[in-house]
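Students often ask why we bother encoding 3D structure as a string. The short answer is that it lets us treat folding as translation between two languages. Here is a chain of 409 residues written in the first language.
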Amino acid sequence: MQGWALAINHQPRAGANCLGSKLSLWSARPVKRAIFSPIQVNAMTERPVPQKGILNIAPYVPGRSSAPGKKAAENIKLSANESPLGASPKAIEAVRAAAEKLEIYPEGSSRELRQALGEVHGIDPERIVVGAGSDEVLHLLAQTYIGDGDEAVMSQYGFMVYPIVTQAAGGTPVIAPETDYRADVDALLAAVTEKTRIVFLANPNNPTGTYLSADELDRLHAGLPSNVLLVIDSAYAEYVTAADYGVGISLVERADNVVMVRTFSKMGLAAARVGWLYGPEHLVDAVNRIRGPFNVSVLGQVAATAAVRDLAFTKALRAHNGQWRDWLTAKIASNRLRVLPSQGNFILVLFPETPGQTASDANAALLERGLVVREMGGYGISNGLRISIGSEDAMRAVADCLQTFMDEQ
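And here it is in the second language, the structure alphabet:
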């Protein structure tokens, strides 16, 4: 089985994709390696010219945050997988206290946060690197291990940031096809070549919500060459309820070529921008050499430190999410609508291609009620809508809207 390459298309196409843009970000197609159309730059240009390949990167555009024509109070945002319970009260209090000392630089290595993470997760704080969101951590990993001519392997419906950080570092994204919206271990391994430097895996995956078990994760790692880095992106780990799930910590501690990436964004601190990695000592040393010394703000550090220790809030968050994720899945699932089984704080709903019943039609009906969800065209899932788990009222409103929408067709 060959890997799929990433095809970048900067030509507008009819209909907006899930990112609220008419720019086609990418599509997976069965060719061996990515082919990019070069940007033509006049050799005699009198302005600064970006490095080769930068202008071929389709920028990440977040999902919409409001419905057209609706006032702020009329919108229910379910498009960004944010915490349905807000932030930890302890994190909020910590931010308020720290706001009195905004003139002071943050501690350069996020030492107190690393210590708190070590205590809660039972890991070595010296093997943790903290970044301004997991996005920065992913960028740092790509900059450290990918260069011109190198490749990074990722699954077909994996997180959109993986191709961006790969190309920004001069590498080529290679897409491994999924099986029924789920990462395929054999396909990922088949896409690895002598040029591969990183394999990115979101587990659970965004936007599908599907996951690989701990045993499957071990099999993936066992099939990789020792010089290929396996990046396990466990951004949604706090929401997982599956008994056979493995977050990646034990694999990191057994191997020299595995790193686990986490975030606080899904735990109520999206505005604070705090992410982290846990990896082998040699990787931490390399990444820290290019990490900015004050890359995480004081407010981010204190909020995350308080949040990670607020185990009661994390438990409540998981319980609320599990209850309403399962409830919404059962309510929406029918012969005409398929809901993928999710381990995240969202669900992916697949709609028919029948005119009047499409994902685009359903999205319009939801927006009319001020229910803002995420279209999936940019991921190549044009028949899908990703719906974040929110409050009880929000979930009941979504279920009622979609039931009415399908009944009227």
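Translate back mentally: Residues 7-32 have pLDDT under 50 and may be disordered. Keep this in mind for the problem set.
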